[in-house]
Amino acid sequence: MFEAFLSLIRAHDTIIIHRHKNPDGDALGSQIGLKHIILENFPGKTVYMVGDAAGRYGFMADSVMDEIPDAAYTDALAIILDTSARALISDDRYGLAARTARVDHHIFCEKIAEEEITDSSYESCCGLIAQFALESGLKLNPAAARALFTGMVTDSGRFRYDATSANTFRLASFLMSQPIDTNEIYQQLYENDFAQMQLRAKFILKIQMTENHVAYIYTTREEMDALQADTFSISRGMVGAMADIKGVPIWVNFTETDQGVLCELRSSRFNINPIAVKYGGGGHAKASGATVKSREEAMQMLHDLNQMAGEMQ
Fold first, then answer.
1. What is the pLDDT of residues 23-81, one digit of tens each?
2. Strand 99-104 and strand 115-118: pairing?
3. How far, rounded to the nearest angstrom, does the alpha carbon of residue 101 sit from its chain's CA centroid?
4. Max CA-CA distance within the chain?
5. Phi and psi of 103, rounded to 5°?
6. Is 6:70 a contact under the CB 8 Å cutoff?
7. Strand runs (DSSP E) across 82-185, as ranges?
8. How many CB atoms lie within 10 A of CB 221?
9. Sign (positive/negative) of CA torsion 244, 121, 152, 216?
10. What is the rounded distance in angstroms from the CA atom of residue 277 to the CA atom of residue 265?
11. How many angstroms separate the CA atoms of 61 and 58, rounded?
């Protein structure tokens, strides 16, 4: 599956790795992990990572992005990771590269690179990068293993989500052959300070329910300003406050920003991806996202989710 991808890496002295905007652990983990796999196995190459700041995942080693000029793309290979659509890529200069490749585990939306490896059976893009290393006979080092394991854990929900498979654990075992401290990784991922716990409690009290038991939270721009919290912590961070509510098969978090209303869709039972795609987003069958223009459009999405929940009962 990876022969052409490996050949592209071998053929280029400069490699620039992109991923999606507002990175999660999987986007950063695959980016950092692939960088260190390449440097470990091809030490003469120059590898850059580009994109917006790591944010919540800034604790990850080597998560600071490189600042590079446009000229760096001349004769370079640009690799795009963990991204299903062009509009989601952080730093759109990938088009300046001599060649482009993508590795992704989301449901396919559109072709965005010359060489494409997309496989939604993997729980994470980090899992795909680990498979690439294993299948290609490439050496791991602790830096790569730590980053890839972190991303695998975050996108599998600590190995809870149903994308988790026997292959997931096989690849996790492969990564753990390196001396990585999993206790430290879990502590950095899941510890909360008291202020974060108080914020989560406020959002639990904001949960509303449709007639077909779709749970949702809507946060206005004024509420965002009053909270003085970053967008990621509210949008992606608080959607989980509605998980595991008995009798709730679908939940969605709406967050107003200057760019529009961010919509984080989740389900324990149904494929909500088509609804995300309808509104210009994408992702996975049971975890997707989109950005809509207004509250009215967000409420139309909620109507569609409510209708889906009613039809599936």
1. 999 999 999 999 999 999 999 999 999 999 998 899 999 999 999 999 999 999 999 99
2. parallel
3. 18
4. 60
5. -125, 125
6. no
7. 99-104, 115-118
8. 12
9. negative
10. 11
11. 8
| Nearest 10 degrees: Cα torsion 108, 113, 114, 115 | -60
Residue 215's DSSP bridge partners are 209, 251
Tens digit of pLDDT at every position of the chain (313 positions): 899 999 999 999 999 999 999 899 999 999 999 999 999 999 999 999 999 999 889 999 999 999 999 999 999 999 999 999 898 999 999 999 999 999 999 988 899 999 999 999 999 999 999 999 999 999 999 999 999 999 999 999 899 888 899 999 999 999 999 999 999 999 999 888 898 899 999 999 999 999 999 999 999 999 998 988 888 889 988 999 999 899 999 999 999 999 899 999 999 999 999 999 999 998 888 999 999 999 999 999 999 999 999 987 6
Separation between Cα atoms, residue 214 and residue 104, nearest integer Å: 29
What value does the CA radius of gyration of the chain take, rounded to a whole number of Å?
20
Residues 252, 287: contact at Cβ < 8 Å? no
* SS3 per residue for 125-146: HHHHHHHHHHHCCCCCCHHHHH
Q: Output 131-135 pairs: Cβ under 8 A, ≥24 positions apart.
A: 131/1, 131/2, 131/167, 131/171, 132/2, 132/5, 132/6, 132/34, 132/37, 132/103, 133/37, 133/174, 134/171, 134/174, 135/1, 135/2
Length of the chain counted residue by residue: 313
Please give the structure tokens belonging to residue 211: 């007639």
User: Which SS3 state, helix, strand or coil, does residue 163 take?
Assistant: coil
Measured CA to CA, the distance from residue 206 to residue 218 in angstroms comes to 8
